[in-house]
Queue: 2 jobs
Job 1
Amino acid sequence: MPLNSDPQKPKDRVRQVSMLATASSIGLSLVIAIFLGTAGGLYIDRHFGTKPWGFIIGLILGVAAGYRNIYILATRLDNQQRKSNDHDGS
């Protein structure tokens, strides 16, 4: 019997790749959010002379946005895992 004869295999692979992509983007989304918040704060400091408050507020907002992104991605990953388990059990 050929290796790819099971029709569920490609769907399982797609599901696994989707879950892996979501999981791998968690760290990246935190770093990008912090970077953008900090860069925005530095930009405000440079153009409005508010040093160091723009940097501090931008950093805090970036960290908050990063953790929000982690929560959203972790919830999405959990939902994907539950769907995968539901499909496997039926």
Job 2
Amino acid sequence: MQIEIRGVEKLSFRERQVVVLKETGYSNEQVAQKLRLSSSTVATLFNRARNKGYEVVIVVHGDLGIFDVDEGEESES
């Protein structure tokens, strides 16, 4: 699985760094430590990037088996 960020060309270099880390699950504090910024700067950069409008797309390769549902399981929901 990989993520793709569409609209990344609208973002500054620092915004890109923050977005990639945040979208892969890092907290503001973890991003701040990794990039040697304050957590409030991370929050500002992330909000600014979101306002510029980017889109995260998850690309999954291969068969996940999510469509192999037994008839009995389908009727239980």
